[in-house]
Here is the input.
Amino acid sequence: MSLQAQSPQAQSPQAQSPQEQRSLVIRFSSLGDVVLCGAVTGGLAPVTFLTKRAFAEVAAALPGVVEVRVWEEVQAGRQRLDGPWAQVVDLHASPRSRRVCAGLRAPVRRVARHDLRRRLRVWLKVGAPPPTVVARYAAAAQLPPAPLPWLSPAAQGTALGLVPGASAATKRWPAERFVALGQAWPGPVVVLGGPDEGERVQAVALAIGPRARAVAERGFATTLPALRDCAVLVAGDTGLLHLAAALGVRVVGLFGPTTSRDGFWSPAAGTALEAPLPCRPCSLHGGATCPVGDHLCMGALSVEHVQAVLLP
Here is the structure.
């Protein structure tokens, strides 16, 4: 069963065009990459979006998306991709997405991954940073990127959002520093994380005190409204950072093993804080341990540094 997007775009005359006028956009994962597709989906409307089940709810909320098809359902033969499509925009450019495109009778445009350039930045610390992901998506779609926010309704809250977790351990700022930020914030605090981060999220919220609430769920039914309650959010280089920015939340990104110059950050989203160390970037997506053993990239970012930029 495909997921029909419940959005203003889904009710427009354009969204009711015949399927042959639709664009098929492919991005399987992960959360941040799917969110960043919002820079171009509105311009490609009406869009059918192919992604993994875990990200279907977010994909359905992107501008211009009228339908989401779930990759796991396609693999199982319960959904089809035979179109016809006006165009296919492959924003994953993996062997898997290339195989999908090979079976479709439609013109295909594909994102440039810049894999070699990104790896040379990590391995040898040489070369210019690649274009941002948003710029790469826009080039593939042959459209100018839409300005933030991409999701509606936009956030209008007063809370401080905190994301103490991350998929990679080296991307995590110390939990006690998130606690210090929350305790110093004069208003409500929302501590957020994914379904496997409940213990960490709960611990930070409890340490902050009764003004803080914890949100760690499988899906986004509670996460999206909680983000809309935020005025500003502090997080490492995580998908929730990009989701908050897409909702119009001002974000403070804490970059350690990755850098704000290597693709996923947009200055329009807020402020990036990072230590100017010669060992950075040390990985494409973070890792389990610091390669040089001191984890100074995150340790050098003090509570005072973050507090200085929390208020506009």
Summary: Confidence is low (pLDDT under 50) at residues 6-17.
